[in-house]
Amino acid sequence: MEDTWDVKGFKGVVERLTLGITRVLEGLPGVTDVRFVEREPAERRCLMSWEQKNDCVLPDDLRDFYLTTDGFNLSWCSKLESEPVPLGSIVINSVAKLLPLCQRTIFSLPRMPSLADLDSEEETEGLDGPHEVPHFDNRSRIFELDSCGGNGNVCLVFRNCTPGLEAQESEVWFLDRALYWHYLSSSFMAYYRLMITHLGLPEWQYNFTPYGPSPQAKQWACLYRPLTSHSKPHVDPTGEPIVNKLDPSKAFRGKTKQPVVKKKSPTQSGGSGGTPKAHGGSGRQSGCRR
Prior knowledge:
InterPro entries: Knr4/Smi1-like_dom, Knr4/Smi1-like_sf, TPGS2. This is Knr4/Smi1-like domain-containing protein. The protein contains 13 helices and 7 strands. It has a domain at about 25-110 and about 130-225: 3-Layer(aba) Sandwich (SMI1/KNR4-like). The protein starts with a helix and ends with a helix. A 4-stranded antiparallel beta sheet has the order 4-5-6-7. The chain has a 3-stranded antiparallel beta sheet with strand order 1-2-3. Helix content is about 40%, strand content about 15%. The relative contact order is 0.08.
């Protein structure tokens, strides 16, 4: 009985940790092979070692998350012609993989410019938005939370950093494949809810960019999240959202005009007025007889 209670208690922790997303996914049509990787909590000494090594203080919500589970990994598939196709993926790196972005091998190839070399003041000054864009140099400390399957990077960003001092305030940003920054949330917990809400669909982070996800990713989003597949509603010049404004009288105007078009046709008017022309014709014929 004691083992049974422990299993049920652990399942309850998993249910609260995933916010019930596994049951939601299993209830969606075509979804199969929902897998959640169970992880042990991270040790406090590992968190303290990470903070000392990187001169950063982990936010309280992220610290509590790591003390519950050392990372997050959930994946699911969709059936296409009875074949499971990997589709959804929700990942948060473990403490050991919470590395500075500049240390990733893809950004540290030999004889290649570093990210700091690509950082340009001219490009960031012209960007509109209430949040200051992160920098790749020592003004910001950037750590990768999720590699997004090669479609970008979700990063924990400490901005306005001073060398030799611990950075304390952090935000979550998305770095797209063109190395442009896009703001996601002010805290890890807000990003966590955002991540769960989008079900780990491909390229969901691009909903927070001006250009959005690819057409294929939009099709998947319309299939599994039809009501929230668009991050920003279209707005007309008056500021009102455009929500299916269809006027039947205008949409089917061509059908109501068909009788009018027939009356205006010269061919049809000549055919319908055959009697007067017949009288004129008979008069001319009688004149010829004379």
